[in-house]
Amino acid sequence: MKIENINFLKKHLQNLAEYEPELKIKIEKISKILSQMKIEDLTNRKSKVHLSASAVVFKNDKCYFIKHPYLKTILLPAGHVEKDEIPLDTAIREFSEETGFFAKVDENMQNIGLIDVNMIEIPENPVKSEGEHIHIDFRYKLVLDEEREVQKSELEYFLLTENEANEEFKGYYKYLNC
């Protein structure tokens, strides 16, 4: 599926604000930035603002994380939204590529599992010829698709409990039993 226009993303964020009202101010700020962008620029790696998406996937009481190869920190499996994707597709694809496991939409979640959105400042990466930029990161709660065979992972992954996770991610554990 493809993002048709900025209004698609803004509506997705408005739906998130309806069931997560504490995110309203952050969502308004991000929506304003999106309003100033062309849809094609959001998937252009030379642009100052990129769309990205992260997967929040639990196994028992633990969440999957990866060690980011460039930033050298523990993060959710995530990546850039490609030209013909919506952020949800990206979260599913990146989870599989980075961990080797498969995930799918959690039918019990509202708004196709969107639980958060963040603006993340990304430093320059000369290896990828990318200048410093901002990611607008859509974060989705997904579930493991245990019917599919595990593949080789691109990155080292970790299963962490809420107490082991970085502060930024602790709030996502409230979705553990949703």
TrEMBL record:
Q: Which Gene3D superfamilies match?
A: Nucleoside Triphosphate Pyrophosphohydrolase (3.90.79.10)
- PROSITE patterns under this entry? NUDIX, NUDIX_BOX
Q: Which domain of life is it from?
A: Bacteria
GO molecular-function terms, A-Z:
hydrolase activity
- Keyword list, A-Z: Hydrolase
Sequence ranges assigned to domain Nudix hydrolase in this UniProt record? 48-178
Query: Where, by residue number, does the polypeptide cross the bilayer?
Result: none
What this protein is called in its record is: NUDIX hydrolase
- Origin organism is Leptotrichia trevisanii
